[in-house]
Amino acid sequence: MTTFERDAKTLELPWPFTGREDELELIRRSSAAGHHGIVVTGPVGCGKTRLVTEAVRGTDCARVAGTPETRHIPFAAFAHLLPEPVSLHRAVQLLSAVRLLLVDDAHLLDDASAALVHQLAVHGRTRLLVVATDGAPVPGAVSRLWTGELLPRLAVEPLPHEETAQLLAAGVGGGVEPFTVNRLHRLCRGDLRLLREVVGAVREEGLLVRLPGSDEWAWRGPVPVTATVRERTAGVLDRPDRETLELLAFAEPLTLDMDGFDLRVLEDLEAEGLVRVDDHGGVGLAHPLHGPVLRAAAGRLRARRLARTPEQCKAALEDEAATLSRRMERADVRTSCAPVGEWLVAEGEPVPSWYAAVRAGFARLRGELREAAAWAREGLRDTAGDPACGAELALAVLQSGEMTDPDADTRVRTDPRTAPWLAAARGDLDTALETVTDAYDAVRLGAPGESPGAGVFALHADALARGDGPALDLAAERLEERGFLLFAAEASAQAVHIHRDPRAARTSRTRAVALARRCQGARTPALSGLVLGELTARQRQIVTLAAAGLSNRQIAEKLTLSIRTVGNHLYSAYARLGAGGRGALPWLVELPDAQPA
Q1: pLDDT (0 to 100) of residue 404
Q2: Strand, helix or coil at 100?
Q3: How far apart are CA 450 and CA 432, in angstroms?
Q4: Where are the beta strands (DSSP E) in 426-469?
Q5: Where are the alpha helices (DSSP H) in 12-110?
Q6: Among 76, 79, 86, residue whose Cα is nearest residue 108
Q7: Per-chain mean pLDDT for the chain
């Protein structure tokens, strides 16, 4: 007998289940006694089966599953639960004793099995958890479970960005830097099977490395063409008009004019959703995964001939920076497409410090503090000591709560912009207000003073000066509309303490918490008192112990939990708090106003 050995670090181990807490709770309630069950649908690879499996963990649950190979065999999915042969009526009688039944891949059920599931739902004695894939043909008996209102339906969306970051941290065993999270989220679009396979291949090829001076993992370089990647991109790799797609792929991150292309081919590709045409007549690939895969599969000589160099992107990079600067001047930082900078980072190419400073400032104003810090670090790698990038890095980390020792942290660059936030990070709000020079920074720190010009910032300042809670709520809405999520969260948080109506205060607090959660760990004076309130009682308990320095094993022993359960609670808490890891927890737990929800 031959024994094969494999390096332990490359073994395929299940990633911890993380995120989707609301969906998990809904499924558990729907499968509890007194309920009839639920149908869970979603796109391929979004984690439906894992979600439902987690929901029934520890329960007495029978399982069946449809498969492509058995779609024409009657009752094939139930072969292990039913004697053979059996009628539909007899099958319903036999399975009525099953209290909870999980039906996976219900879109692949044979007609007899589908009819059996439908009859079990009609009779209502068996609680059903039915999983089906969007976009696939579904037997009529299955689709009528929700269209006929026999069971409620939960449509699972692709995993959002915040939970993708949480899952990656759990899967790779540490924090993942924002650019890598963004890239994986953009390429995989919530397809968890694809995400896991790409991350596994990146690790095996040595492309996932620790960033210098950081404990975060980063990925730079090509996309590995794994089996799942080929499966997901077969529609472009196997086309007879692949040459047109390759030309578009090697033009990325820029778009090309349609001149020189066969318009009939482009029309067909657009109709199939493979290419997109922008408002300026430029054409590019529609799916972000297609370009990297086409480039990787092209061969070295063809790639050498067609590849775009970073120097060719300089003009586009300047245009991106100018566009973002104009958006900031107009106080409008809603999402702006700026792919050239991301392409340079993904390829491992240096990013000019002047561009990085603009991207960092834009991200900071949007409340994307970790991303702002990442752009600033990229600029400092290009030009060590660049003052603009140094200031942006300091502002990002000072407002994120990740700086556990402001006096010792070498990332702090003290200047008139950063001095107030350095004092605030030390807990010295009086000094922060004494040293503040920017009128709107003073408003964010809670000082009602002179109005910072006009527009949404003046609306916020005026509402705070008048102590007007509803006006602060309105200012928060206007700030959110223009992309200033952190400022909106701060305005809502300030409204909490001004409202006289407890219901209005609770509404403002809920809004502040929801906005702050989208701001990548923002921890500013206005948000103090909100952070721990959004955790469950068990999460607050575990976070408090972790902040005190206890290891996962020590916490598990103290609370009589498994180490894995402790780890899952911590990952969920990190996501809710926006914390990058244990380093930020002492700062969060020691907030004097933190109260349970």
Answers
A1: 58
A2: strand
A3: 17
A4: none
A5: 21-30, 48-55, 88-95
A6: 76
A7: 86
Amino acid symbol at 183: R
Q: Are strands 153-155 and 37-42 parallel, antiparallel or unpaired?
A: parallel
- Tens digit of each residue's pLDDT (9 = 90 or more) over 426-484: 889 999 999 999 999 999 999 987 777 778 999 999 999 999 999 999 999 999 999 99
Q: Distance between CA atoms of 391 and 375, rounded to whole angstroms? A: 12
Q: Which residue has the tokens 């065999």?
A: 73
Residue 544 pLDDT more than 70?
yes
- Report the length, in residues, of the chain: 597
Q: How far apart are CA 82 and CA 85, in angstroms?
A: 8
Q: What would the two tokens of residue 132 be?
A: 């089906």
- Contact status, residue 376 vs residue 360, Cβ threshold 8 Å: yes
**How many Cα neighbours within 13 Å face the side chain of 138?**
22
pTM: 0.79
Pairing of strands 208-210, 217-219: antiparallel
DSSP secondary structure letter of residue 130: E
Q: Running DSSP on this structure, what letter comes out for residue 65?
A: E
How many other C-beta atoms can be found within 10 angstroms of the C-beta atom of residue 133? 19
Of all helices (H) and strands (E), which one includes residue 133? Answer: strand 127-133
**Residues 56 and 100 sit within 8 Å (Cβ to Cβ):** yes
Distances (CA, A) of 230 to 83, 185, 219: 41, 18, 20
- What residues pair up with 415 in beta bridges, in sequence order? none
